[in-house]
Amino acid sequence: MSTSIKPVCAIVGAGEGLGASLARVFAADGCDVALLSRTAAGSAEAQTAARQANPSGRTLYVEADASKAESLEAGLKSVASQLGAVDILIYNVRGSVSFKPPLESSCDELREILDVEVVGAFAATRAVLPAMLERGSGTILYSSATAALRGSANGLLYATAKFGLRGMAQSVAKAYAAKGVHVAHLRLDCDLDVPIVRQMRGASFKKENTAQTDDVAQTYLWVHKQPRSAWSNEVELRPYTETWTI
Amino acid sequence: MSTSIKPVCAIVGAGEGLGASLARVFAADGCDVALLSRTAAGSAEAQTAARQANPSGRTLYVEADASKAESLEAGLKSVASQLGAVDILIYNVRGSVSFKPPLESSCDELREILDVEVVGAFAATRAVLPAMLERGSGTILYSSATAALRGSANGLLYATAKFGLRGMAQSVAKAYAAKGVHVAHLRLDCDLDVPIVRQMRGASFKKENTAQTDDVAQTYLWVHKQPRSAWSNEVELRPYTETWTI
Amino acid sequence: MSTSIKPVCAIVGAGEGLGASLARVFAADGCDVALLSRTAAGSAEAQTAARQANPSGRTLYVEADASKAESLEAGLKSVASQLGAVDILIYNVRGSVSFKPPLESSCDELREILDVEVVGAFAATRAVLPAMLERGSGTILYSSATAALRGSANGLLYATAKFGLRGMAQSVAKAYAAKGVHVAHLRLDCDLDVPIVRQMRGASFKKENTAQTDDVAQTYLWVHKQPRSAWSNEVELRPYTETWTI
Amino acid sequence: MSTSIKPVCAIVGAGEGLGASLARVFAADGCDVALLSRTAAGSAEAQTAARQANPSGRTLYVEADASKAESLEAGLKSVASQLGAVDILIYNVRGSVSFKPPLESSCDELREILDVEVVGAFAATRAVLPAMLERGSGTILYSSATAALRGSANGLLYATAKFGLRGMAQSVAKAYAAKGVHVAHLRLDCDLDVPIVRQMRGASFKKENTAQTDDVAQTYLWVHKQPRSAWSNEVELRPYTETWTI
């Protein structure tokens, strides 16, 4: 009979790739880890990663659909009831993004991506904030992308959503930082080394030109650990090979 | 019996204040002006302004609800059938914004403001773009605000929406500028001298600290008139008294 | 015997290209125009442009070396004594920029470009400001470039200078806007159609991909004319063909 | 008889406050630490901090005047000859900043701050880069401030310099990241808890409203340690109490 005093880290969008790396890194650091996604199969890799990284820690899968605010709220409530209040929320959902000219995108598609990327992030945030405010601490990390700073000819859907997410992240930070909640927007300004990118790039894929998800996850952990007198709100990451534009 | 060859300017969100000034300024410059809003009463001032500014021009009121993509599409279709293809679209809708802490805002409120500020802008854009692309010219102007660059403790709803609008404006510009469509995001980084601001500010209201809407509308007209070898995409405006932060 | 009440426009860096267009456009609008550059030959085209655009206006050439603060101060003092206090200052100097890797650039080169692009702009600003503040109006326009927002592998010298210029422009604006001085930073985010660019680009030069300097100058004039309740501080310009990054 | 294989960290501007914290944190992490400043007395605190944090490590004081490129170059050459090639350069110089209206600042003052904040940073960078490029790794960290993103009415001197520094940092990063050199611009968007701030703020000083320099230094160390597939170039820091504007 024992009471866990481990921090609880809830990862929404815990699939393969970055989701699994986040599970691994936060578990290895001693967190109990909850994985939320639409299917248990989708989070299987992340769950295994967390278990191997911290065999004595608890891992939990909870079904949740990021396109439905109610589903996220219920999922995070379930996490809290099973593991305790969430200390760290990572919103790492990536909707099915398709890049195409604005006129080939519909209003429904725009609404769908806003639901998943923006309203979902807000719903998850709302679900964990009250307990964080009550105890005066907590961390909320949003996974974002280049598109949060820059529109593009074929990226209207994605840019509109990621811009919105960035504005939301700033607002939540400004509202609750002084109450001890650390909010950050992590802008992955690059390709990640994940199956979908390997597939998209095909023969032109080069590992050196991508961010390794375990490396990315280390900075998420660092942001969580920053002492509160010196917090970052916007953090960008890219591989050393990237010739980026700001 | 004559055929108008005047440019057609459609203003979505053509109420009192900036809407009426835009109607006045574009009418005075020789445009036929279509005003779209939820009620004819709401656009009465704008319609009068347009008529007085250009008695020989045509003005048209069309009912449209910016929170419903289909309504905007139908409204703009009606404009085109009555006045001819839209040359200038001004999306000037302002939802009912309430400033409050994130936790006092609901997911439904976020969805509502995204529908009006972002999805509505996209619906209107989609409705006028094909004809613009066909003839290789057109202007699309989005009214925006400080909140497009900066979140705030009580402004999550508004910031999320205006950030999204900015990302959309960049994307539409990058997709279609080379085809002759000039897209701009006009950031009003200040209070406007409009009834609602006078009411909000009460005794502390000072005319000198606000932008006059006729003055603001002049820059909208200028952006429309910029020769295509030297276009602006993001334009900020504020009164000389404003001590702003970028 | 008559007293001129025409506005006085002083253009520092009034060579061929944009300098000549600015001279033409502000003269055509009714200004007396003073041209400052290192040699009369360098400003000959600008002077001719101003005279042709406004045969009844006054044009004046004054020798000044933008790399020497004292020379700029003396030159602008000379303008004021001959034409009257300067109403509009345009700082349009472009040092001899060479693009190369940081390690191939020297500290002396960095100091030189900072002297011309930044300290010179400040010296010219200081020279005209007191009279502007005394009468409560004036316009100061700084020509800038993409490099003001973005460093680049071969553009350290230019980016360091243009970033600095942008910070200066914001500071001057914030210090003196409320006293009636309109300050703007005009970011030319593109190639201009000027001899040096035609030469650099060689066979790949395409007029459609460049900003025409007369078109650019029209926006400088517009910024000057903006009513003071609705001023812009940062203005970007690029041709419709440009696929830019923000 | 032994050969040190410890990384060499050179801190330019190693006074009390952040300089001493950087010395402490990098020494504690196992670096040999070189402290460069105008007087040995100025670096005494930093030197003591480094020694206490890592009694078995080497610490070295080298006289250097950041306002003179040659002095910095000589100083860093001396470091390399005594400790070995520099692995980590931290440019943490802060000139004597005085906040006042633009017209009360002189061109000489602008040149002076540009020399210290910008040309000095470039001189130091040039001094350490060749060895970093030769071995394909290295870290260069520039201490910066809010003023790098935003001009202010009384901060022209500081903003012009810090904007310039930011443009330089981007350029160096883009030129040499792919060769293994990690360059970052650390924006301290807040007051630090250092003697000069305590003095400036007087009775209104509140420790909770400032960043603790040891906490800030931890993020410098983290940026240095980021794996190269996921590097940050611009990092902002502020205390949880800060109500900032971006």
Automatic annotation (TrEMBL), chains A, B, C, D:
Q: What protein name does the entry list? A: NADP-dependent 3-hydroxy acid dehydrogenase YdfG
Highest taxon above the source species: Bacteria
InterPro entries (alphabetical):
NAD(P)-bd_dom_sf (IPR036291), Sc_DH/Rdtase_CS (IPR020904), SDR_fam (IPR002347)
